[in-house]
Amino acid sequence: PFFYGEESRFELKLSKSGGIFISNSFLMILAVQTTLKFTYSEKYPDEAPLYEIFSQENLEDNDVSDILKLLALQAEENLGMVMIFTLVTAVQEKLNEIVDQIKTRREEEKKQKEKEAEEAEKQLFHGTPVTIENFLSWKAKFDAELLEIKKKRMKEEEQAGKNKLSGKQLFETDHNLDTSDIQFLEDAGNNVEVDESLFQEMDDLELEDDEDDPDYTPADPESDLTD
């Protein structure tokens, strides 16, 4: 029994495990935990005890808020009665509910990912259905890209043409070279001097070589005529 004016406090640690949950080839244990701290007031149980969530694991902020609201409601409904066990039981059931919600949410997320993967695979194999709209859009883009390629090629050819002589230009260049050679010879022809003594020395050199040869036999001019 509790008497007015008596104050005490204690903590209860509540936990709930949802077992093993398989998702995307790895194992996950669904478990939530909370530590409740109760402090008796002077007029307990005619007055609700003070309570707080001292610590928690794997609970979202909205889960914590829901648990606090539940404690307030249960305390209000059980005023005048010993209520700690009732409050703890209510929180334990709430944790069970939270675990089930987490499990359901993750199963739905898993199914959604599998569905998206299947849709992506179908899209890969079947491609996008051709409609008038997407065909015209593709063709406009293709024509624009083709036009850019043609412009680039024409610009390159134009640039190359500026640096390259045409056939006519090559012919005129060769003809001008021939003309310049002829003109050079004509201009130099009147100024060329021939040293005849050079040729005389060459004839003497050949005659001397023949006479020095022991096998040399002068040719008979008459025999040549007879033959």
UniProtKB/TrEMBL annotation:
Keyword Magnesium: no
Alphabetized Pfam families for the sequence: DFRP_C, RWD
Residue ranges of every copy of the RWD domain listed in the record: 1-98
Alphabetized UniProt keyword annotations: Coiled coil
Domain of life (superkingdom): Eukaryota
InterPro entries: GIR2-like, RWD_dom, UBQ-conjugating_enzyme/RWD, ZC3H15/TMA46_C
UniProt feature coiled coil, ranges: 92-164
Record region (Disordered): 182-227
Cytoplasm is among the record's keywords: no
Residue spans of biased composition, Acidic residues class: 193-227
Protein name in the entry: RWD domain containing 1
Organism: Ursus americanus (American black bear)
